[in-house]
Write a structure and sequence with these properties.
By secondary structure, the chain is of the alpha+beta class. It is built from 10 helices and 7 strands. Strand 6 and strand 7 form a beta hairpin.
Length: 376
Amino acid sequence: MMDNRDVLTHVRINRAAYITYWIQAFNERFPNRYDESYMYSMGEKGFGYITDLETAVEAYPLHNNLLGNCIPLEQLVEQEGVETGMLFLAAQLWRQTLLEVGESTLTLTLFKQMNARIDYFETVMCQNYWNQSISQMKDNASAITKHHDDRISLVGKMAASMAHEIRNPMTSIKGFLKLLRSTITSNNYERAEAYLDFIDDECDHILMQVTGFLSFSKKPIMDEAKDLISAKQVLDHILSLLNPRLINENVDLTLTISANLMLNVQKMAIQQVLSNLLNNGIDALSKLKSDKKIHIAVMEDNFHTYIRVSNNGPSIPSKMNDVIFNPFVTDKENGTGLGLAICKQIMLKNDGDISFTSNEKETSFLLAFRKNIDSD
């Protein structure tokens, strides 16, 4: 009868039989998962670890590598596509292999020693998996917290921007309502009608701002329908609202329209775009002492209708070129950075786009609306 040392030698001599059985058992569970050479290499390393009873299990680098494979657990799981359950099954199959192939020769003492090495491997693997899971949960919790904070910050910026855009027209409406009360008392209805026109215009301005924010939010609620309207009609309405500011800021505005061009767009939304561009232009011109000019040109080609809004104010800094249409990007001291981002969203919703050029002499924003060309 062979002693344990002789039995262990016999087991090592028959390593090919053990490895072959283990591979066959694995492939029955996961057919064609890995190629033959890879499986045999893993089988050799697993067999070597299990039968190397002279070396203490603590001496194997299992905390960082699996079965001497020199592949960290997290890399083996993530990059090699090895599922954690598959690793446990591979370890379990080594027990089955020892019992089946070594049934007639393997002693109970040697089986217990080899089984203890498999147990140790599973313990290390569980610990590594647990540590990795805890780390991932902490990362996820941190990401969720940051995402929540970002959303709160975004809501705050949106609210501040909305308040900024609506405060002025609401102040005007309140003032005109006071004047309206006094004129009604004195039966001066002609002046009262003028005040009502101002109030109506300011309400339109607020509605444009709300439309812009809804467009920026990408929500379908209250989405405005498209209408076929003339470009001149849209511009006339915007200029009537901005005329007091143009006069107050001493800005010379000129308008060129090559023909009675039509736009199939969301009227209120496009008015918001033009209002933003013109107000931005007036803001830029505030840095000039005189000769403040804004020019609006409407033109077309075979595929697009264009509206160009230009001013002779300072150039836009080159660092803004690639980010100017991103949310919360602005070079204004009190700007919110939402105006141009809203313009971009609105133009995309209206089958168009917005671009700009800027130099020391002129800054121009170009609105391009695609025409509906029949395929005929």
